[in-house]
Every structure is written in structure tokens, then in C-alpha cells.
Amino acid sequence: MSQTIAILTGASRGLGASLARGLLAPGTQLVTLARRTDDELAALATEKGVKLEQIAVDLADTAAAAQTAERIFASLPRDAGRYLLINNAGTVHPVANSAALNDPAAIGAAFALNVTSVMLLTSRFLASTQGLTAKRQIVNISSGAGRNPNAGWAVYCSTKAALDMYTRVVNAEHREHGVQAISLAPGVVDTGMQETIRSSSVESFPALARFQDLKASGKLSSPEDVARRILALTERDDFGQTEIDDIRNYA
Prior knowledge:
Layout: E1 4-9, H1 14-22, E2 28-34, H2 39-48, E3 51-56, H3 62-74, E4 82-87, H4 104-129, E5 135-141, H5 154-174, E6 179-185, H6 192-198, H7 208-216, H8 223-234, E7 244-246
Parallel strand pairs: 1-2, 1-4, 2-3, 4-5, 5-6, 6-7
Pfam family, one: adh_short
Protein name: Benzil reductase
InterPro entries: Biopterin_syn/organic_redct, NAD(P)-bd_dom_sf, SDR_fam
């Protein structure tokens, strides 16, 4: 029997990679979803005696996301003390002025990854754990961009705003049955996504200089520290009381 069964998306790099390593703890069974597997993570899991399953999948492919969700949760053990789903995978692309957002494939892929895959995985998570007395927690990694507009980020802001509202709906439907869901902004983290943002053109992303300065002045949070704080939050007694939250509210 595992004390915690954790499912984590976007686990191969950045914040997701740090979350995966933080979840390699005694009593935890970890399932990761990412476009590629992580040999170092597998070695660490073996070293620590943690059961790890890595699934290589592109969650922007909605059919693959649905099939993967079905497979994971159809075989989910039902005797754990806690079930934790962390929807971390996401993309900032496409970055462009609203007048230039005319590529339906790029827009659709962003919504598929940032929103649709979250809904598909959460749906199966809710259905497969229904009726259990175990703790059931959902952490949707959102962004301040879903709460404040940023020029050039029409798609990213919209997907994260959708994620915030989806989290609220999940709570409205399932909180009384013991589910705790939060939509959590991680702050500005020193990851590959930030590198992508800094490589944007000022024409597409007018706030470019501010993000370049955050890096140059050392004001970006490390993914290791943010991951540690996120996982600590899931252990708090007041987890879930603030459904639209920001990890910067916690030390």
C-alpha cells in the first residue's frame, strides 16, 4: 500500500522535473507524463526505493491524452491514503499580438495542452477515486497571466484564465465529496519557458525588457525552491481553502 499516489504532467524539465524529484519520497508511488522519459529520475527512484512509472506522451495530442488518462486511472490502486494530481504541463506559445493570432493549429495546440489535457486527466482522476475515503488533491499550475492581461499573451492568458475557472467548477461539483482542487500560480520561475519568453520579439511581447531584467538581476525563483514550496503546501491542513492561489503567498 502506498501512502500517496501522485500523477504529474510535464515532468521532464523545469518546474515539473523538480516536482518529480521532490515526490520521490518513501511511501509514494509516482506516475509522470511528459514528451520524453528521464533516465536520471528513474535512477533516483531506484536508489530511493520509490515505484515510478514514466509515460512518454504529447498531451497536446488530445486523443493520446485521453487514451493515456484512461490507461493510468483504469489500473489505479484504490488503497492509498492520498491521491495527488499535479497538472503542470503547459506552453506559452504562440506569443503574438492579437491581430497576428491567425494560426488555428498553434492556438488549438496551446488550448489542448494547457486546458483540454487537464480536463481529461482530472475527469478520470475524479471518476476513479470517487467514493474513496482517501485524501484527493488536485494542483493545477496556473499563472498570474490568467488573472492579469499581458500584451502578446492572448492565448497564454486565456488558457490560464480558463484553468482558474475550471478549478472553481471542479470544487463546486466535488468539494463536498472530499476533493480539494487549487489553481496555483508559481511565480516567475527560472525555467525553459522563461528562456522562450526572453527570446520573443518586443513587437510580439512588449514586456520583453522586464522579463530580461528579472533574469539579469537574479529575481527569478529557482524551480527547486518553488517545487519544494508547492509540495509543502499540499501537506498543509489548510490546503484547498484558497482555490485560486499563488505560491508566493507561502514562505
